[in-house]
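Illustration: Cytochrome C oxidase subunit II.
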Amino acid sequence: MKLRTSIFFTIVALAAMLALTACGSNNSKNNNSSPAASAPAASEGAEGGQTIEATIDASNWKFDVTEVKAKVGDTLKLTMKSSEGNHGILIEDLGGVKIKNGETVEIKLDKAGTFEYHCNIMCGQGHDNMTGNIIVE
Ligand SMILES: [Cu+2]
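Result:
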């Protein structure tokens, strides 16, 4: 009876020691792993950073909106509608963005300036009058 008990405790003690050393080696391995690089999130909302929504309605031969103002860092969500005739919008100075009737495009405004847009579909005698400006400050 006494012998059994002491063997039992010896086994328990050995098991505990094994467990401790196993834990110890695991911990040292974990400590060697390089820290996870946490890149800073894209800097949004600092200056500008808002979403500006504008709808430009085209008719023969004008755009109802000829000036859209925004700030550097804003995202311009531009929708084009054509209530009369067949028109489109081309913004050459902002990467040649094209917007068709009923379409919405999102443009990230990352530089200041005045960017002209104009109709890019030959729509008739007043075609050349169909211009406007996106002013980014
Ligand atoms: Cu046109």
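Reading the tokens back as a structure: The pocket of copper (II) ion is lined by residues 87, 119, 121-123, 127, 130 (CB under 6 Å).
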